[in-house]
Every structure is written in structure tokens, then in C-alpha cells.
Amino acid sequence: MSDSPLDQRPPSRPLGAARVAIGFLAGVLIWALNEAGDQKLWPATVPPLFGALIMVAVFVPFVLVGGLGALRTRTLALWTAGSAVVLAALGAHDLARRFETLNDPWLSPQLMIFGAAGLFIAHHLVEGADAERRIIAPFPRYFEIAWKHGVQLALSAAFVGVFWLILFLGGAMFDLIGIKAVGELLQKAWFAIPATATMFAAAVHLTDVRAGLIRGIRTVALTLLAWLLPILVVLAAAFLLALPFTGLDALWGTRSGAAILLSAMAVLIVLTNAAYQDGEPDSPVPPVLRWSGKLAGALLAPMIVLAGYALWLRIGQYGLTPDRIVAVACVVAGLVYAVGYLVAAVRPGRWMRRLEITNIVAAFVSLALLLAIFSPLADPARLSVNNQMGRLESGAVTAAKLDYQFLRFDSGRYGREALIALKARGGEVGKRAAAALAETERRGDAPDAVLLEAANLPVIWPAGRTLPQDFFVQQWARDQQRSCTLGRDECQAALLDLTRDGVEEVVIINRQRAWIHGRVDGQWRFMGEAALWRPDRKNDAALVEAIRKGGLSAGTPALDDLIIDGQRYSVTPDGASPVAIKVPPAPPPAK
Question: What is the 3-state secondary structure (H, E, C) of 380-404?
């Protein structure tokens, strides 16, 4: 593949001035929007407009800075306008659905992160097509552009970091002689934001001028990454071979199996591409890398099956959440890679050649998925709310365990509309929905966040007992116990004297941990916790059944360990001495 004329033309001084000017103007605009958001001024008072402006101000300058000198003028104009429209629409939708419940004028971090990733993918599809004068460019062109810009972004970010280190060092030196103005200037948003954007744009231009240097750094980086591929391949293969002997219960018990497997797949894909490069290496690929690439392509298939199954189990148990919907999108994209790389690994001919078409197809699929989940088409909040309401209607979740906090604060206007409908229904669910609508902050944001309820904590040992009523007046702020009130975990309770003082402690138990509470001076205090997961335990149901049959006892003096079905679980005492909330006095008897 021959270089296009655009590759041969060195960046000019006017081009550098234009890039720096764009960076400065973008910084000024971002600062102005930041001030409007902090001060609740227009356009922050119009959430859809404000969201659209933020997306355009943050991302469109990247399109211009990256496209100048690389895209033809007509292509650059069309791509800039088109990306601005799409980004503005995504930003408007994000704030329109979130502002009503959060009263927060800022875009969601997920949109900013995934929006940047999507824009990076789309920009290189456009630039490659423009360079080759074709809708779909050859894979080597995409490889050349994407890795070049990836190295540029990394070097530019490092340049900006060093720039700020130098400024802070200068400010510290002036502080030594009593001049505080320099250090104070660095803390001003009106200086910091435009300066950062300007220096980043300048760094992009400087790295563009040194194209040979970028190509050399890219070659070194790819070589180093490629030789990490055999290590990860051996680890992934050993993991899959060990599963028949360990079983899947330990994997499901981590509650993060799908995320870990998807992350491992992503790294395998990157390292495989580092070994393959553009498919036209200057020297033969070493045999160890060739076989590692083929094995990596074969390993992706069972890994995506395991990740998909783990996610399916989680959704079946607890329904959809926005994070799980994003994970579903990752599984779909991972499936494209798994199938394509498997074909590339087993198909005869040039080594892993089918990888090229797989990468291109996966790029378009990933863009489609990103546009879907950040638009009304497949908004994770809307889908999650609909799923949770469906589970309530079907009886899969009770009114006591419905996640009202999610509906109130984490699902935007969709959750608020659902709460209004539940409030109108009346009964227990109506009372809880009305209480959620009246809340102004998440319970997790308050120091006394969780009020445990008897309905959420059935006593499984000793059989027939109930927990003390004053225990439910105590409010707890620990995240793990909060999950017992939101339907995220199936929690049980047990009564056991762990301190050998003749007074029973309350032990709250879920799949992973046990939390111990005891009375101190007439008040309930958190005393410690124990990790219950063990690699030799077959499943969580066996643990609960062992407790039901009386297989729960105290272990050692002081704060005793728990012994369940003969297995000892160490209790970690709580050294924070949490402040207990006093039990309110009983009302006087009626006369």
C-alpha cells in the first residue's frame, strides 16, 4: 500500500497555528460552560441545550485538530458537522433524562468515556476511507492511522502532564519567596482549562510534525506488547483447563466473572493485533507469536460463552440494570471478535488474515451499539426500569425488595414516572414509592443510611425465633448491609452468643459475608464481619441449609469465629467504633 499525498505533506506553520487556536477557543468555551454549570446560569438552566453544548465543546475540537491536514476540506466539513449533530443529540438526551431527578447539570461519566471511544473509532473509519477514496478502506490503512493517533494521544497527554508539573514547580518556587500569585493563578479555572486545551492541541501538532518519531515509538510499543501475548495465552488456557476440576460455582461466586472475562478478552484482542500489526510485517513473524495468535483466537470463543452465561444468570436472578445492559453490549461486540478470530485461527492460508475483516466489522458493530445505548433506542435506564416493573408485576421481586433508590436517583425520568405510577397504585408499594419520591438525596449519601427491615431478614437459626424489635430502629451506613434492603442480595439472620456473655448477637448473612452486631450499653453496634466464601464450598444454598440444620456455632474466646457445618470463618473486629444511634423511648401508655 502506497502512502497517500496527505502522508507525504509535512504539517505547515499555518496548520499549527490553526490547531493551537482551536485548542484555545475550545478551552475558553469549556470554561464558560463550566462556570454556567457551577453558577446555575443560562444555558445550564436548559438541560438539553447544555448537554448538547458540552458534548460539542469537548469533542468536536478533537475532530478539527485531528482532521486538519489529514482530511480533504469537503470531507472535514461534512464529518465535523455530522459528528457535531450526533454528539449534540446524545448530550441533549443524556441531560434531558437525568436532570429532572438529579438536578445535576453535568453529563454522565459513562457518556463521556464511551463517547470518546466511539468518536475515536468513527474518526479513523472516516479518515481511512477518505485517504483511500473508498467507503471501506483496506485494513493496513486503518491500522496505520489508528495506531499513529493512539501514540499521539498518549504522548500529548504526557506532554500536558509534564507541562502542569513544570507550572506547579514554578508556583512552588515563587511561594518560597512569598509570592503567592503564581500558585493561585494555577488554581483558577479560567486559566487552567484554556491552558490545558491549548497545550494539548499544540502537542498534537508537534507529534504530527515528527511523523518518523511516532512511527518508531509505535513499532517499539507493538513489539513489546506482542511478546506479552504468549504469557496471557498460557494463563487463559490454564484457566479454561482448570474449570472442569474446580467447577463454575467459584467463578459465579465472585459476582464479577463476566467483567473479568470480558477484560481478559479485550487484552487478548489488543495483544493479538500487536503481533499481527498491519498484516504486512517487515520480517517473518516468530513461530511462538504465530501459535500464540492462533491459540488466542481459539480461546476467545469459550471465554465469551462463559461471560455471556454468567451475565445471563445474573440478569435472571436480579433483572436488568444499566451496568448489565452495557455488559450485554460488550458481550455482543465480544461475540463478533470471538467468531471472527476463531475463523482466522482455523482457516488455512496466511496467518490470521481473517482478523482484518473481523476488526472492521467489529468497529461498525461497536459504533452501532454505542449509539443505541446512549440514545432513546436502547437507553439502559429505560430498559432497566421496564424490566424491574415487569419483575414486580410477575412476583419475581416483592414490594419490600424493589430498588426504589434506583428508580428515584439512578434511572432518570423513566424511574420517576414509574414511581409516580406505583404511588397511584396504593398499598405497600404505593407508600414506599411515595417515600422515595419525597427523598432529596440517596440514602447512601447520608451517614445513617440503611434501616433494616424484618421482611428482608428472616431468621433461619434458631428456627422460629425473631430478631429484637429495637434492632430494626437502628440505622446502618455500611454498603454491604444496604444491599439487604434493596433486593440485591438474599440475606438471612441468626442469633448467636459470640462474646460468651450470655447475650445473643445478631448475625446478618448473605452469599459472601456475615456481619455481627451486638448490644453495648443498651445500643446496637456493628462489631465485626467474616468472609464466608470458600473455594471448597459447592454453592451458597449449601451454606444456608447448613445453618438451618443447626450447623452454626461460636469458635474462640473474645469475639468468636463462626463455625458453619464444621468450617471455621474468622471474624474481623471493627476498629472504627461506629457511632450507635440510640433507640427512641417507647411512647407512654394511653390513658
Answer: HHHHHHHHHHHHHHHCCCCCCCCCH
